[in-house]
User: Fold this.
Amino acid sequence: MKAVEAVPQAVDPQRVAQHGEAVMRLVDEIFPLVEGFYVDLHRNPELSHQEHRTSRAVAEWLSRAGFEVASGVGGTGVVGVLRNGPGPTVMLRGDMDALPVEEKTGLPYASTARGVDSEGNEVPIMHACGHDVHTACLVGAADLLASTRERWSGTLMIVAQPAEEMIDGAQGMLRDGVYERFGRPDIALAQHVGPQPAGLIAHRAGVILGAGATLRVRVFGSGGHASRPHNAIDPVVIAASIVTRLQTVVSREIDPADSAVVTVGVLRAGNKANIIPDEAYLEVNTRSFDERVQRRLHAAIERIVRAEAAASGAPREPEITLVQQAGVTRNDPAHTAALAAAHRAYLGDAYVVDMPEPFTGSEDFGDFGLSDGPDPVPYVFWFIGGTPHDVWNAAPGSTPYEKLAGVPGNHSPFFAPDREPTLRVGLAALTLGALTYLGHTSPRPPAETATAGHPSLLGEPSAPVPAPAGESVVEEEPELDSTRDADMAALLAEEDPADEGRADEGRADEGRADEGRADRAGLPQEPPPPPTGPTRGTDTGPGRPPTGPQQPVGPQPPTGPAFPAPPPSGPPVAAPPPASGEDPLSDDLPYPYRE
Assistant:
């Protein structure tokens, strides 16, 4: 397999942006279907390991787009592969599962679904973590790239993962031989919607998410009558002592320079006030940014649990079981820099920010990086903002850091990403991420704006646009309907050049020291304003006026109900791979290349 250093980005950031302009010209045609797919998923969420309907819909979409598709990978996972000539293999991953949360957003497409969790309990279900956004953007980006194969070369690998919330979906797909069966990627990419303002992308090199784990603890006593506690050994008292003592682990056993969290999220014992039960049950969750700290946390928890049981004379040793564990999500620094540069070149500096500090949340996407093995896969994971601008502006606080704490975040029953800007930036981020490695390094002939095996999604192809003599169409800056043009150009035109120095001025003012904490949130001091209407033009950076004609283009904000996604019907049909030896870049093949 190729070494990490043998898989640099295929093209420089400006050329990625140019490729993105050509690919994203189709976004206005496909967007209603992507939006409808998202609304359908939001209205019909499924718990971890139960994503049957969602996986069927993903498989059908990928099949129609021309991918080789396999379902049931690692349970309910879906893998789609599109081979398009020589080049690296790029993996785009999205997760599909929802949470046992009752939705309280008041949205017209709010979930009312209920289901049965892994312990047999009936629970409400909601996409409270944005996995519906991830899945809709995943299939949309796959379709855009399948429709513009003349713009790139290599292999695109789409992975729709189950059970991220259980932190075992990635491992399940790996155990099922996802790399052995479908190919080992040269780079793996993924994104997550978060509470930042809608339209932003947040990157961080190195550690971006912490390690997380859940331990189940069962402590045993001797039951008895509540009136005669001296004849019993009370496991409730043992559990209470454990909870209290665990609060000292971070404050007294972990270096203050290290971040760590210990939370007891479940505590159950007994069922009647006048009965001392036989046992008590706890679930303990840990977070850290360092595997060494994680090991120390777990050792301390086990020591405290056993010591408290022994101190109370428990008749049996407690049971301690590690049921969930995710390692640190550690982005490859060089590849993170390449992707951030490509996103900036397309969207503009104001809409791509760097996160100075990682989040304590955890993910299992890093498992696809095989970091414990001799031949790891480099990966990059980033955040896209989802908070509506009016909600952000109304949130309490004068700094972005304070506002982050005041808006509904992931796992909240009020989590409701702003549909259009969130989906559009998610589509652009994934598509540009793939093109950073798959895009051509040399000029290409003009392309048709047509689908590849997916006429039902984008309609009839338009005629090719001839390039002027002696010029490359790639080298031009065409006036195209792109995510940037639809959402961002007008905003950049309104940026005040003086804004660039405001954050530093705020940090210099001792009376406003907290404003400097905005950097910790991975946000600009002055977040971009809400969209005022799409325009066409080529922006030249924040605070600078765009060049080219300024005129309204692109779709208006959605009104009324979203387009419903068609329900999946029947098993997906596997698309055949290209004929052996065919090179989509060969001059001997008709252009643009189609299978």
